[in-house]
Amino acid sequence: MNLPAYEAATINADSIVTDLVACSANTLLINAGGIMAFYPTKLDFHYRNPYLKDNNVLADVIRKCHEKGIKVIVRFDFSRVNERIFKAHPDWCYISPKGERIINTDMYVVSINAPYVQEKAFRIIEEVIDTFPIDGIFLNMPGYQVNNPYEGKYHGIDQNDYDKKRFAEFSGGDALPTEENKADPLFQKYLEFKKVTVEDWSERLRKLVKSKNEQIAICTYSDKFVDIIRHESQSMTTLPYWPYTASDNVGNAVNSFPEHIISNASIQQISFQSRYNAVEPEETRIRLCENIANGSGLDMSMMGDMRGYEDERSYPVFRKVYGFHKNNEAYFGKYKSVAKVAVIAPGAWPNGEPMQEYRGIQLMLREAHIPFDIVEDGQIAHLEQKVKGYKLIILPEISYLKPEALRVLKEASQQGTNLIATNRTFFDSPETLETLFGAKIDKKDNDGAGNYLVPDDRSVFRSFKGQNMLFWKFNLGLYDLSGAHRRLLPVLAKGRPGPPEIIGGHDATGYYALGIKNHPKSKAALFPINLGRIYYMHGYEEHKYLLLDVIYHMLPEIAQDFETNAPARVETVLKEFTRNTHENRAKNTSDGQILHLINLTGFSGNTYFEPLPVHDLQFKIRLAKKPQKVFTLTNHKPLNFTWKDGTISVSLTRLAEFESIVMEW
């Protein structure tokens, strides 16, 4: 419950607890301090909420939640201070390269290396822990600020004097960079500086909190020195919408940081500018069900408490999905991947063209029902053995990898892991491009609008009956692929644009859009083109089949591991599970596999309608051993199945919104 200041005057502990119980919620996250104190603080640098009339309201909420067995995590946001504090301490606050402040009404963005964050924040947290019997703390907007996200304006790298001094100490005398340029060695040093300073602050925070009470959980958006990694499924302000946002977020976090608890929040607001309008109920349902399927707990974030809310359409969804989770909790959350394929993510919060490329590749795999994991690019070296265990790794426009990550990928290739890379992947490491793919760059950036690709080798490209030319747009890199063992997809010239009478002239350019290099135990394929982006933005299946045909050519067994007649808009998530009970907390052996089915047939690309029921779904799945029983979680009714040669065949008569099929040993 992200409380606006004015709700401090009206919130009621009894009604909050009643609503939480009705929704089967077992944890409340609610404001405590930072931007403003929602309790009677004694610290003069902690701005008190002017609407706060009842000094005991936070204490009452915590006490009454505990009486019902509900944990309470309190929210802090140290990204801003009130104007009163800014006027007394302007040196505590952000200043842009142009000398600008980031201001929201009467709140000023602070500098992470200034005394407010480095000293005063710890005193605020300590005061709250000493005053209230809390179960956890949540840190909103931690770290360095360069944007005013509430107004959509970029301001730049903080030039506060405290930042300048600390960066000079860190770098041996360098001045702060003023531009975010990944190709600039100084900016790369600044990125390392940000990482080190944020982790230093987080470590100090953990020592403080755990010295007070080991059982207080620390929750935020990063991984170091925290107990719970939080992520957010947010509404998109640009099309196409992304219905897999929760699967994307959770899949990235659980595979990149397997030792952490993951909590992905469904953010109810449409946008920062439209906080009082919630997303569609069907979008909320999809997010929550994807949370369950991928191993997150349920997490819903809204403005204010649930009474008198401006948009209550999703309340029945909360009650239904949370209730389903509560009734079947033993089958959720303690998962192990069965995927042989991994997609490398460009960070935890991808954006821009790399995000479009990454999402497009995901979309192709999800629609083809190919199980895959997501691994964040920065975690490759930390997960070396896991990465080397995949049969196929896909790199959608992944660049700027550290040397140790490149080493892991090269060794994985040598040991039998196939690689597929797209667009500008490894453009900054010519040696890696040549070693892995036999490729050299002639022209990295080239507008491909008007060019065509020819699916020439039908032993590879089996999906193009009746089609000899595939249109293109976006980037079409011109690469020398002479070091590859096979060059496929000849690129045709743009030809003559104009009226029908003059078109033509699409002659071969001598370039190819795919090169495959054979290694002793694996293959490495390079598409120097925006393959994911063109599918994400336009959705022509011909581009999807380029990738799928190459996957099945490189790794034929993928097609036999999981077979289904489910439509592309039925999301399938297959996991190995261990019953999630107190008795099994330390248990690592498997209790079976679980197949989650999420019905996205109501998603149109820009609207979330109710899904259409899907009938007579068939599944053939390779399993390690024969299940003793197979049943659905919505009604716990057994399903008939057959077992032959290590493969289970099972059918589902009807899929409504969501289903989980348990295959228990």
From TrEMBL:
It comes from Dyadobacter endophyticus. Gene3D superfamilies: 3.40.50.880, Glycosidases. This is Family 10 glycosylhydrolase. It holds the Pfam family GHL6. CDD domains: A4_beta-galactosidase_middle_domain.
